[in-house]
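We modelled each protein-ligand pair independently. The example shown here corresponds to the 1,3-dihydroxyacetonephosphate entry; the chain sequence is given first, followed by the ligand as SMILES.
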Amino acid sequence: MRKKIIAANWKMNMTIGEAESFLKDFRLEIEEVTGVEIVIAPPFTALPKLSELLGGSQKVRLGAQNFYFEKSGAYTGEISAAMLRDLFVRYVIIGHSERRQIFGETDSFINKKVLAAHASELKPILCVGETLEEREAGKEKQVLETQLRGGLAGVSAEQLVETVIAYEPVWAIGTGKTATSAQAQDAHAHVRAVLAELTDAATADKVRIQYGGSVKPANALELLSQPDIDGALVGGASLEARGFAEIVKAGVPA
Ligand SMILES: O=C(CO)COP(=O)(O)O
């Protein structure tokens, strides 16, 4: 069985002080929780403090929201995989729709990051998802397939098992509109079918596929009960310790 993975994507929120106080409250809330993997992806500035406070905790892993695929050099404003590894970061979010839309990231650029992450022992959380126009035109499956094939080009079966896919329909991000559990399950099953085509069914069966887009304590259990939904990538609702802890608890095996 795939262990659920619940990740907080704090986006451009949380000062160091706010992150510290979140972690203090959150750890109390999840003291009894087992059987679920928890990831927090704060802004870069809060990573050193959280890394120090977590001290290599197995219970809460650190993620980054971005990085650049080159090893070092003249890339003003960028952060490398080795810099993240210095802070014991395990996961990195790649290809979030905000990076695709606002910062113009393409599938081939995203693919370079996925390959560089694996080469540096960072586990990618590769985000895919269609816009409202694409869904209304009935193209969502085609869009997912293009993003997956492009983003995962050259990724081996062993690496795919260490990759998390996040299905985030763009129309559900920050809008309060969640995909219904049936819509999400349908998309996740399609993602898994594409992964099976890229490798084989046994490999695809091991890959964890998160849902993201207005996940809240009130809808987490229903979403996480679907057969192909193996976790959540949570934005807004991950900024509050108790609410995020409730979502984490929805991922604990029954
Ligand atoms: O983009 C998301 C997580 O990466 C989802 O954001 P919201 O949970 O705020 O809709």
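The mean pLDDT is 97.
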